[in-house]
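Working notes for the structural subgroup meeting. M.R. asked for a predicted model of this chain before we commit to crystallization trials. I am recording the input and output together here so anyone reviewing the notebook later can reproduce the run.

Input as submitted:
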Amino acid sequence: MIEVVGVGDDGWDGLDGARRRLVAGASTLIGGRRHLDLLAPHAPGAELVTWPSPLRAGLPELLRATGDAVALASGDPLRSGIATTLVDLLGADAVRVHPAVGSDALARARQGWSAESATVVTAVGRDLRAVLPHLAPAARLVVLCSDGADPARLGALLAESGWGASTLTARWHLGGPDEGARSERADAFAGRTDDLVLCCVEVRADDPAAVSPTAGPVPGRPEDFIAHDGQLTKRDVRASALARLRPTAGAHLWDLGAGNGSVALEWCLAAERTSATCVERDPTRAQRIRDNAAALGLAGRVEVVVGDTTTTDLTPFAAPDAVFVGGGLDEDVLERSWQALPVGGRLVAHAVTLEGEGALVATHGRTGGELTRVSVERAVPLGRYLSWTPARAVVQLAVTRPHGAS
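Returned structure, recorded in token form:
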């Protein structure tokens, strides 16, 4: 059994009786150097072991060698902490967590923010652009930082993204004797803080009339929300597809024939913890999907595979909750997608050619669902007047897998 003890910046003084007894009675004490230095004097009989590097690769061997142990972690060990990794490796039955008050809770207390009114974003060991999907007018963010350089980096990122008027408050050593804070406009925040730091952000747009089209979860963003070469599902049709794909928290999408990734990226922006696997045959477009995902703060949530949808083996991919087929469409691709879905999984496919329509009609005959022809016209100048110009019509198949489907 691994007992994970949450430790605040106040060290031993902040531990309650139960956590003190665990530390004092430990035969093996595992932790980072700072935590071991804080608590080792109170565990005189313990063997002191530091976390391996790289962490996840070295943990299995370390845990086999130590057996039962007490592990030290910051604050709430399940808030972007070591306990999450330990539970993933060992299972919840082999790990007991004894949390302290987390730094995010202390920060909200200092700000006077309720838990319901603020979103916690971790940038520890990650690209700071992970905050970008959460930026919206009046949003409140608590951003967990890697080090004392992150607050200024975050301020610069907010300024570059049109949110420089936000209030950025850096708070360090929360709950400890060296606690401190500094609050400034994001676009004016400069210099380094202490390393044990997080940032509280009250989000404000520089120009409320020019808020980024990526703000908020609603799909159907303008085509220029990503870099592209013209090969993408247009916004009105994309909004229709996302409405039928129904992204939900933690759900995974296959985007087959992904083009420049517009559907997969909007899927990931629509709900928390969503992820996507994109298959795109053109290597340049595949790299553009990766670049677009990074620019939107979604790099860790979008996997890109270079391959043709008609020949790529789909079985190694994470199981989908929904599949979108936007390119390279034939009956075999649709059938393999259908068979990969669980009960309740959604399949949405688009066609603009007669051959593609035939594949959709044939699949509809086997699976049922809804066939829709989506036509969009936009008003464009015609001399001194406006005239309607139609876009290419798209045939859409949308179907949810029921119980007993073959």
